[in-house]
Specification:
The strands form three sheets. Strands 1, 2, 3, 4, 6, 9, 10, 11 and 13 form a nine-stranded antiparallel beta sheet that branches. This protein has a six-stranded antiparallel beta sheet with strand order 14-19-15-16-17-18. A four-stranded antiparallel beta sheet has the order 5-12-7-8, with no helix packed on it. β3 and β4 form a beta hairpin. The protein has six helices and 19 strands. The protein is mainly β. Helices cover 15% and strands 38% of the residues. The protein is globular and about 55 Å long.
Length: 343
């Protein structure tokens, strides 16, 4: 999967590219077998196994990098995903930086900064452009003869400061029937977390649409990032969905034609938005510094039909937002999206 896209930030479109990558032969201590399109790491308590992607270069240098993964990890296993970047090429790599983990991962120091960049909770942000990136997976187990299987590894490069020529979408009316995604409210969950779980609640809605109906609290438990004390860690939510049987990946969207294709294909989208007061008419909040909701489709005018988990019930949560306003609070703020596929 390779998807080249242009995103707008204010009036300036910028570069973005999403691709799936494979994994190279292991480093010295790893034991690894290749089976078709996925990678198997044989792990045990004696030593961890490591597999690494080939160096990845986008069509242009990048300032931001989203990474997501789908990994099969039995309960007695754990894995860590790490990233390193090169400003000018492979001859000067940064240190490996911690992107995320799963299971009882080793309590080693977590490096999250390098010269000119850092991992900002769940994605890499550079102070200047970088030319190349590499990702590795380190896995271990409490018991011998276990297998950790890396099914998919996806990278999304972008540079919001790279001015690019906009691509004009074909002129056609949007008539994409909204998908039948069942509504859930985050407000009905435990008071101590109900204001923090828009991401796993949105995840639970799409999981139910995919035929995997689980209690929202269970999805929250899987998505919870204890190191950062948050429920909205982007790649961890994607892995949480996969651990429940639904694959997916992180990407960015920039144009409505690509969005319409996803809805037409039966794929609801989980959008990461941020809105100032008055930017999103009819929302169950005046403003938000960060929120996730489900885009189900479009009405006859081309406006956006959504499930917004911040509402208390279905009647007030299945809403229609103006396309131009959702574009402002989503696409023009980066267009970050979870895409959950058929099991």
């Amino acid at each position: 999967m390779i998807h080249l896209a242009l995103l707008a930030l204010g009036n300036l479109p910028f570069y973005c590219e999403t691709r799936s990558v494979g994994l190279d032969e292991p480093q010295a201590i790893a034991r690894l077998a290749r089976n078709g399109a996925y990678t198997v790491l044989e792990v045990g308590p004696a030593a961890e196994s490591i597999c690494t992607s080939p160096p990845q270069r986008g069509a242009h240098p990048f300032r931001e990098l989203l990474v997501s993964w789908n990994v099969d990890a039995p309960p007695v296993t754990a894995f860590v995903v790490e990233l390193r970047v090169g400003e000018k090429g492979e001859e000067a790599w940064s240190e490996w930086m911690h992107l995320g983990d799963w299971g009882e991962a080793p309590s080693t120091p977590r490096t999250v900064v390098c010269d000119g960049g850092k991992v900002d909770v769940d994605f890499f942000v550079g102070e200047r452009p970088f030319a190349v990136a590499q990702v590795r997976v380190r896995a271990n187990a409490r018991e011998a003869a276990q297998r950790v299987v890396v099914r998919h590894l996806t990278l999304c490069f972008s540079d919001r400061e790279r001015d690019m020529t906009p691509i004009e979408a074909p002129a056609r009316p949007t008539r994409v029937k909204p998908l039948d995604v069942p509504f859930r409210s985050q407000k009905v969950e435990k008071p101590d977390i109900s204001g923090r779980i828009c991401s796993p609640t949105s995840l639970a809605m799409v999981l139910a649409y995919r035929g995997v109906a689980r209690p929202t609290t269970e999805v929250c438990e899987r998505a919870y990032d204890a190191a950062n004390d948050i429920y909205g860690n982007w790649p961890r939510n994607v892995q949480a969905a996969y651990s429940l049987g639904v694959p997916g990946y992180l990407t960015r969207f920039c144009d409505w034609t690509a969005v319409e294709r996803e809805i037409e294909a039966g794929n609801p989208l989980i959008l990461s938005i941020a809105a100032k007061k008055g930017q999103l008419t009819g929302a169950p909040y005046q403003q938000t510094s960060g929120h996730l909701l489900v885009l189900r489709g479009f009405d006859e005018r081309g406006d956006c039909v959504v499930n917004d988990p911040a509402a208390p019930d279905t009647e007030r949560g299945q809403l229609t937002y103006k396309r131009a306003e959702l574009e402002e609070v989503w696409m023009r703020r980066g267009g970050v999206t979870y895409v959950l596929l058929k099991p």
